[in-house]
Write a structure and sequence with these properties.
about 350 residues, binds ligand G4F, two-stranded parallel ribbon
Length: about 350
């Protein structure tokens, strides 16, 4: 008889894949949902896919209710009442903020209407198994709002600055409405920026660490400069493993509620750039060019409207004993070293401790 059941939408993405790993480590029987694409996008699930006994990757699309229903049917065949409610995680989104300005309709279709489809299927679940639902909300929903203390709190006003953030905020409110109206168990976790070596290459952290990885593999010779946008914006970065621990903790509460996942610290993109550069310099035994020769500002990476400053205070998580285990410096180091390896520059690394 299988153990506890979990269903992860967005399983092939960064946080989704770490969530799958965490649930499998904890003995869950996990279904991941993957939207069919012409290119293989399952590299983050290498470990999970090797666990044929307890991990199944299903094709499905959150924008299509029929496909969600078919996933629920598969799940119902493995459901045993004594194992408790099925845990459902929704990480599926079109998560690139800048892209949402150019493709607002498709962003809202996936991020908002996709989640609404899931809420509706959970509400009228024809297979009757009880569910605990997690929604990955975003700190982008705060827009430019910051408390006078310099933090965003659970109750800080949310005033989105992008189509993506509008979609996330509307879905966040739908969660509250479905919880209050139908007694559904739903947690909406406002995630501040979440990073790791599995981060997509177009987000600023990974874009920077990948570029330094390639610089090292190229023995310090610059092929073309790193192109960046706004270096003054500040972000609150947490390692994806810590984010997943926080979400699991909140999903284990007897009554699900909304919460923030943040490190409580903020750094500018310029500080991130400097930290990644210094990490590379310290890690290798070849000479790297001065930082100012490595990058240039490209206005094409500026956004029509920017969120300038994010720093969250995860009050509820602190109360339940969570705090991040990986510092900003350790996170940057892990990403830079991983990217040096990936680019083929491991022979230039001095030592790994
Ligand atoms: O890495 P980013 O693209 O992440 P952003 O926009 O903060 O969004 C991420 O975090 C949100 C949670 O806070 C998630 F909801 C969202 O899905 C995503 O995971 O950009 C970070 C900052 C921005 O201020 C951006 O303007 O970096 C600045 N930036 C400067 N140069 C750049 C670049 N961002 C990108 N992607 N590429 C650049 O070249």
């Amino acid at each position: 008889m299988p153990s506890k059941l979990a269903l992860v939408f967005g399983a092939t993405g960064q946080i989704g894949s770490y969530m799958v790993d965490s649930l499998l480590d904890d003995g869950f029987f996990v279904f991941g949902v993957n939207r069919r694409t012409s290119v293989n996008n399952t590299w983050r699930l290498k470990k999970a896919l090797a666990n044929k006994a307890r991990f199944t990757l299903l094709n499905g699309d959150i924008t299509d209710s029929g496909s969600i229903l078919r996933v629920f049917k598969e799940l119902s065949d493995c459901y045993y009442e004594e194992n408790g409610p099925v845990q459902i995680y929704n990480f599926a989104a079109s998560s690139h903020v800048a892209v949402s300005f150019n493709e607002p309709t498709s962003n809202i279709d996936v991020t908002l209407k996709g989640h609404l489809n899931l809420l509706e299927v959970c509400r009228d679940n024809p297979y009757n198994f009880p569910t605990l639902l997690f929604f990955a909300n975003s700190s982008e929903t705060f827009g430019s709002q910051v408390d006078s203390s310099g933090f965003q709190y659970d109750n800080t006003l949310r005033q989105p600055n992008s189509p993506y953030a509008v979609a996330k905020l509307a879905a966040h409110h739908l969660n509250r409405i479905y919880r209050d109206s139908y007694g559904m168990q739903i947690a909406s976790g406002t995630l501040f920026n979440t990073e790791s070596p599995r981060r997509g290459e177009t987000f600023v952290t990974r874009k920077i660490t990948k570029w330094f990885g390639e610089l090292v593999a190229n023995r310090g010779l610059i092929k073309s400069k790193l192109q960046l946008g706004n270096l003054d914006a500040c972000r609150d970065w947490t390692h994806a493993c810590d984010t997943v621990k926080a979400i699991r903790l909140m999903m284990a509460r007897p009554k699900l509620e909304d919460f923030l996942v943040a490190s409580g610290q903020t750094h500018s993109i310029a500080q991130l750039l400097e930290a990644a550069y210094q990490t590379a310099v310290d890690a290798v035994h070849i000479e790297l060019p001065p930082l100012q020769d490595c990058y240039e500002i490209n206005n094409g990476f500026l956004r029509p409207n920017e969120v300038k400053y994010l720093k969250g205070w995860p009050e509820k998580l602190y109360r339940y004993g969570w705090k991040p285990s990986i510092t900003f410096k350790q996170l940057v180091r892990e990403m830079v070293i991983s990217d040096i390896f990936l680019a083929g520059g491991k022979d230039y690394i001095k030592c790994l401790n």
